[in-house]
Structures are given as structure tokens and as C-alpha cells.
User: What shape does this take?
Amino acid sequence: MTNSGNQPSRSLLCDIMMYKNKDISTIPAIQWGLKHEATALSAYLKKFEETHRTVEVVRPGLVTHREYPYIRASPDAIISCDCHGCNIIEIKCPYKARCMEPKQAVLESKIDYVKIGINGTLELVCAHKYGYYEQVMTQLACSEQKSATLIIWTKLGFIDLPIQFDEQYWCKSMLPKLKQFFETIVVTEILTGHMKKQLDSNISENADTVTNIDETTEEKKEDLDDSLSNSSSGK
Ligand SMILES: [Zn+2]
Assistant: This one.
């Protein structure tokens, strides 16, 4: 599961409760991500295998947290090698940067969830509205791993960012918020079914950001598309 590092959303609650939310499978960015994820992983593996021994790849599916089973994540892959052990892989194929060099897209802020760090390295932004950093932290916590790689793939190439588990951030910031979300909002919904009733009785109530796509500009639409590709791929 993911959240933006700020307030977990209504769509997250929908997702956890397995309520039928707006079908997002027809959104171009979702289709783009699904279509190219395997290509991105192959491209990365090809490079990885040049410098590592006995490389293995698994697709772990849903991984639940050992202590808090309601906290879950689905890493795109886990790559292991004899020389370094396990590494969680998260793949992004940003739709709005699909025809750009990934690094150029970062420099031009077309991809704004990655920034240039002090020593010139690329860093995943913490507490960005898409919640990708928090998504990777959740994957690491659930799978009890310490290191991950974020792959950002476009038609012109890919970049790979190493990310270490930030135990302080997880324990002090993320975990308390996630626990509170489940223990109050989710438990309340289980007991009252309030949101379910709302969804059943008034379909238009469900018309939040997703259905407003038509009214937004193309730029905003692509931004929304990319953010949605998080919720579909990384719950
Ligand atoms: Zn290795």
C-alpha cells in the first residue's frame, strides 16, 4: 500500500476495503506503465548482470508486514546476486516524460519526484505528492530489506537510483500515521460501512479527481495519470 506521506486518501480506503472505485485501467499512463514495465526490468537486468554474479529475479507479489499485517506492498521485483544479496526493485515508466531522456526530464522538472542531490547524484524526493519514496519505504519494511533501486524508464533509456531504508523516517513518521489510519479510519469503515453506503447511494459522490480529467489541461492530465500509476502498481 502507499500513501503520500501526508494524509492517506479516500482512494486508499477504497482500495483497502476492496470497494469498486473508478476503473483506471483505461487511463493512458496506466496502460503505458503496464506495457513497458517488463521492458524496463529487462534493460536494467542486462546492465546489472554485467557486474554481478549469479543474478536471480523474483516477482514477489503482495508482501505483508510481519508485525502489522494490514500494511502491505507489492515490489515490482526482487533481484538477488551472490555478491550483494537482495535488492527491491520499483519501476516507473512516467508517461509525461515518455519521449525524453530520463535525466533530462529530471533537469527540466518534467519528473519532479527526483532531485539532484548535493553531490550531483539523483535522489528520490521524500514526501512528494506521488508518495514514491514512501512506497519504497513500505516495500522495504514489509519485505525486511535494506536497499532498493528505483528504475525510471522512458523510450530513450533509463536511470536507476539506489535507495536505502530510512529506519528513522519509517518508525517516527510513516508507521505511526499508517497505524493511526488503519486503527481509526479503516476500523470505523469496517464497523459503520459509511463510505460504502455513500458509494452505493450516490455514484457522483465518487467523482473526485479522476472524473475531473476532462476539465483539466493536458499537462495536468498527464500529471494526474502519472500519479495514478502509483496507486495501481504499488499498493
Ligand atoms: Zn552483486
